[in-house]
Amino acid sequence: MKVAxxxxxxxxxxxxxxxxxxxxxxxxxxxxxLLCCGDFQAVRNEADMKCMxxxxxxxxxxxxxxxxxxxxxxxxxxxxxxxxxEASNHMQELPYGGWVAPNIYYLGYAGVVRYRGVRIGGLSGxxxxxxxxxxxFECPPYDQQTVRSAYHVRNxxxxxxxxxxxxxxxxxxxxxxRGIYHYGNKSQLLKRKSFLRQEVESNSLGSPAAAExxxxxxxxxxxxxxxHVKFAAYMQHQAQKxxxxxxxxxxxxxxxxxxxxxxxxxxIEQDPSASxxxxxxxxxxxxxxxxxxxxxxxxRTWNMPENNGLFSRWDYSxxxxxxxxxxxxxGGDLRVPENFSATAPHYDPNNPQxxxxxxxxxxxxxxxxxxxxxxxxxxxxxTEGVGWEEEEQEDNLSxxxxxxxxxxxxxxxxxxxSVNPDEITIEEEWEEEGGEEAAIQSPPAxxxxxxxxxxxxxxxxxxxxxxxxxxxxxxxxxxxSSSEDSTNEEPARHEGAGLTDGMEGTSSPPSEESSAxxxxxxxxxxxxATGQGMKKMKRRNQTxxxxxxxxxxxxxxx
Length: 558
Known about the structure:
Layout: E1 2-6, H1 13-27, E2 33-36, H2 46-49, H3 64-69, E3 77-80, H4 88-92, E4 98-101, E5 104-106, E6 110-115, E7 118-123, H5 146-149, H6 155-161, E8 170-173, H7 186-192, H8 197-202, H9 208-217, E9 221-224, E10 231-236, E11 247-252, E12 263-268, E13 279-280, H10 282-290, H11 320-329, H12 364-373, H13 378-384, E14 430-431, E15 448-449, H14 512-515, E16 538-539
Parallel strand pairs: 1-2, 2-3, 3-5, 7-8, 8-9, 9-11, 12-15
Antiparallel strand pairs: 1-12, 4-5, 6-7, 6-13, 10-11, 14-16
């Protein structure tokens, strides 16, 4: 099947669907699925914009509300993960995933689904170590801290994903797995994003939690966004016992703007006997049931269960009986019910409600799934004033004392923050005086993935690994070309493995002017009174990002 992959959406659904329609006409193909890698911005109304961590000048309604209201219909099944610029109040209604509009599905804080036999997983948000061990305690109305911490990845979601034992075909995240840049063309990346050099050289760019998952899941494909650059990598994993080594093809894409590589089509072999409806994944649902007692809706920090003598249980993986029980709970039907329901009024351009305030809603989709499987709804917990559920006794929980360090450092002073918009403004889209015509000048590449595994036998399981480990680094990187003439469209090979299907995107390669390294934006709060040495420029695609006055010291748009 044809799968379109999109980088940062930023609410531009109309433009993304129009681009897909253009490619379908031009290439004579039919796109079956759209995957979006975060910053989706499912903004329903003016109140939702107040729950989105972006500078005031970027608080624009965009076009999602048309699909939410029913004015328009998504022409292709769309699956997405959250990023760091979302309507967090809307996303929090669906912690286990659900429909944000007809035919548009959110994977939740973390989730796994199946479509036509292809297994698709994802992790929403970005990594920030100081919030990693907390629960999802935030709820509207947000303050300046919680509007940002609401989209930070938590250890409970990574712990759940690390219980997976069956093979993964595709995985989505917003920020990159830490160290993945060592498996692609670093010189080309740094040529285009020179301000990332310090993080790349210190191996601090990206998410250590995502790096853990990359090692554990070893999916055939991993898609990301966040850094607003196209980057391809090929990672050969170490062989597990008697199994053949796996490889992951990594691809990060740009955001939806003219002349940018924001969309790519890949060919993925499907199971012709599988349903053409989106389906739940029985292993994942069983893991959700097993970990229901670990739900934390407070700001209290704690570590996940480990085999360290402090916990009576640390393995929450799915068993065959557990997966059968889940299917029985669903009446033998794994199809995701098409039960979208609006929980907030939609935006009316003819009657703006600028004074509308965010509301706190319990989504019927979440209520229905929790009732069916016996899960804990974090939103109901907050409504009822419940902090968390203890699975057994107090000694089952580790709160992360000085003697029990978390799996990742909580001190971020040694980490550069240029990829975290809380501290720095990442490159905006600027161009010198010139035209703004958008054009797609080259056909999309087609990448053929291996057939998705559909076995539940022990041969198909991920190797026996500890349920949680302290490592947060990828294996020894391969050697990559340092030539300035090499291109990112030809990622380096590792241990002789070839990537013969290419990595060309839907738009033409950047010109010399656009690919040249640009100076980094100033750090939040830095004095910018002088502005010396800067050219007079204007924004690209003024209709998308119209400035309402320059905001100094605000969060970036990555």
